[in-house]
Amino acid sequence: MKVLVPVKRVVDYNVKIRVKPDQTGVETANVKMSMNPFDEIAVEQAVRLKEAGTATEIVAVSIGPTQSQETIRTALAMGADRGILVEADADVEPLAIAKMLKAIVEKEGPELVLLGKQAIDDDSNQTGQMLAALMGWPQATFASKVEMKDGSMDVTREVDGGLETINVKLPAALTVDLRLNEPRYASLPNIMKAKKKPIDTMSPADLGVEPAKRLEVLKVVEPEKRQGGAKVESVAELVDKLKNEAKVI
Amino acid sequence: MTSGVDTETFAQIQEAVRRFTMERLIPAEREVEETDTVPAAIVQEMKDLGLFGLSIPQEFGGVGLSLSQEVAVIAEVAQAALAFRSVFGTNVGIGSQGIVIDGTDEQKAEWLPKLATGEATASFALTEPDAGSDAGGLRTRAVRDGDTYVINGAKRYITNSDSATILCLMARTDPDRKGAAGISAFIIPTDTPGITIGKPDKKMGQRGTRTCDITLADVRVPAANMIGGDALVNQGFKTAMKVLDRGRIHMSALAIGQSRRAINEALAYAADRKQFGQEIANFQLVQALLADSQAELYASECMANDAAARFDRGEAIPQQAACAKMFATEACGRIADRAVQIFGGAGYMVEYPVERIYRDVRLMRIYEGTTQIQQLIIAKQMLKRQAAGEKL
Predict the structure, then answer these.
(1) Which of A185, A186, A192 sits opposite B5 (nearest CB)?
(2) Looking at beta carbons, which residues of chain B come within 8 Å of A15?
(3) pTM of the full predicted structure?
(4) What fold does the segment set B122-234 form as a domain?
(5) What ipTM, to 2 d.p.?
C-alpha cells in the first residue's frame, strides 16, 4: 500500500509569534521554520505502517516556497521514501491545496493519505476534509488510534463527547491528532541518507490548478494583553466587583 | 583536510541534536543528578540518534563530521548536564581517535563500525596513579612474548571504563627509554583475563559520569593489537598527543556549551527576579556580570572555531588547541561563578541548575591537560618561535 503524507512548513512551535505592524499577517522573515507538528505525527504513523509491513512506499508532499524542500527532507530522514515539492506561494488556501493534492493522488494512486489535522499557523483544519470530498473518499479526522484491517481501518477519533471509533474503507483520507503517537527523532545517519532520496519538483500549473484567492484577510491582531489580577480585602468587596465591574453575577 | 558533511545536511543534523538536547536531555538532568546514572533509555536514544559516531568517518558507518562541525554539535549537547556528553564522549573523542588517526586498516575495519553505532564503547587509558600531568612518566609495562604482549600496571580515573568494550591504552614497551619515547598504544578488549576495573570514583560533580581505576595483571593481547601495528612501536605517545590535540578543541566546545547554558540561566533569572522594586537585570552591576560573561563566551567561540577550521585545513595546531582549551575552560569557570552570583542565595541551592554547573565545570580546567600544562605547551611553542628568530 502506498501512503501519501502532505507536510507543511510553518513557523516553529517554539517561536513566539509576532504580528506584522501593518496587521496583514504574522512575521515570518528571519523566523525559524519547521515541519507542522501534526504533520510530523502523520509521517511517524506512515513510517510505523511501513515498519509493520502494511505500507510499501511513503511519499511526502509539500506545497509552498522552495525552502519547503527542507521540510520534505525532514520527512525523508524520518523514513519517507521520496518527496514531491510543489513550488507555490506560502499562503495558498486550503481548497487550492486540496485540489493540488487531488491531482497528485490521481497520479500516484495511494490507498491512504495521512494528514495533520491542521497546521499550527492558520489553524484552518480543512485540507484533509476537502481532499476527501474532492476524491469522493471516506474521511476519518482527529485520529488518536488507528488499526489497519483488510481493506479498511478502525479509527478512534477524539470528539467533544469523548472517543468515537469508526471503520472506514480504503482508500481514505486520515487526519491525525496529537495523541496518536510520539514522532521519532530522525537519526543523524538517516539525515545523511535522506540527502540521496529523490524529490520531484513541480508547479501548480503542472497539476492543472490555479491557486486563486477566495478568501480575504481583513486584519491580523495580537490577542489582548491579559490584565494582571488584584487582591480583594473582603468577601463583600469580591461580590461587589463581580456584580458591578465584571458584571457576572 | 576534512570537509565533513555538506552545509544543508549539517544544518539538519545540528537542529536534530539541539532538539534532542532540549526535549530529552535537559528534562532528565535532575534524575541523573539524583541517581548518579544516565538512564539506560536515554543512552539507547543517544545510540539510535547516532551520537556515538559523530567523528567516525562515514566509510566506517559514522557521521564523519569535520572538527568544526563537531565543535558546533558538541556545544549543543553540552548545554545539558555534562554527564550526557560523557556517555558518548569517549567514542567521539579520545577513546576512538587513536584508531581513526593511527590505526591499521584491520583495526579500523574491526572497531570503527561498532564504535560508530555505540555497539562497542572505548575508553582512553593514559593516566596512572603516578603519571598524571607527567604522562610520559607512565609505568605500565608491555613486554613482547612471541606474537603477544603481556601488560602489567595500573590506570587511574579512566572515564567510562566500567562499561567500555575496549581500552585505548598507553604502556611502556621500551624500559630503557625514559619519558615519552618508548611508549606504545594498544587496543585492549576489557574482557581480556587479568583486567580488573575498580569501583566508580566519587566525585565533586559531573554526577552520572563514570571514572574507575584499572589494574592489569599479566594481560596478554596479540601483538596485532598495537595501534598502527609494529610500524608504530614506541610511537604511542605521539598518537596520544595527536588524540589530545583534537580532544582539546572538543573540550573547548564542551566549555562553550556549558557557558551558553549558564548565561541563559543567569539572564532569564535576572530578567525575572525583582529587588528594590524592579528586575535585577536593570541594575548596572548585574549587567556588568552578564556582559563580561557574554564577551568571554564570544572569545571562546572564536578561538574554538578558528582552531577547528585550521585543524580541518590540515594545519598543526598545538598552540591554538592549548590556547582554546585553556581560555574556554577558564572562562567557563568564571561564567559559572558569575551565574551563581547573579542568582544570589538561590544560586547556592541544588534546585537551580547553576549550582550543578558550578561544580560540573570545575573539572574542565583539569582533565585532558590541566590549565598549567596548556600554559607550558603554549610557552614551549613561543620559545621555539623565539629560537627560530620568528616574530608574530
Answers:
(1) A192
(2) none
(3) 0.89
(4) Butyryl-CoA Dehydrogenase, subunit A; domain 2 (2.40.110)
(5) 0.84
